[in-house]
C-alpha cells in the first residue's frame, strides 16, 4: 500500500502542477484503473493507496493554487 500511496502522491502532484484542470482526467484514469484491478481480484489495499495518494496530491496542489490566487 505504501509504495502505491507514494506513487499516487507523485502522480497527483505532477498532474495538478503541470496539467491543472486536465489533471482531473489523470485522477479519474487512476481511479478507473484501480477499480478495474480490484474487480479482477488484485490487492484492494494497493488500489486504496493509489486512489488516496492521487486524490491527496492533486487536491493539495489545487488548494495551494486556490489560496495563492492563481485560480
From TrEMBL:
TM annotation in the entry: 20-39, 46-67
Keyword annotations from UniProtKB, A to Z: Membrane, Transmembrane, Transmembrane helix
Organism per entry: Brachybacterium paraconglomeratum
Membrane keyword on record: yes
Protein name according to UniProt: DUF4190 domain-containing protein
Amino acid at each position: 500500500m505504501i509504495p502505491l500511496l507514494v506513487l499516487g502522491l507523485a502522480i497527483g502532484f505532477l498532474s495538478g502542477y503541470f496539467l491543472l484542470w486536465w489533471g482531473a482526467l489523470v485522477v479519474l484514469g487512476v481511479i478507473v484503473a484501480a477499480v478495474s484491478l480490484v474487480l479482477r481480484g488484485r490487492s484492494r489495499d494497493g488500489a486504496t493507496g493509489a486512489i488516496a495518494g492521487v486524490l491527496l496530491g492533486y487536491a493539495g496542489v489545487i488548494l495551494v493554487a486556490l489560496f495563492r490566487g492563481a485560480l
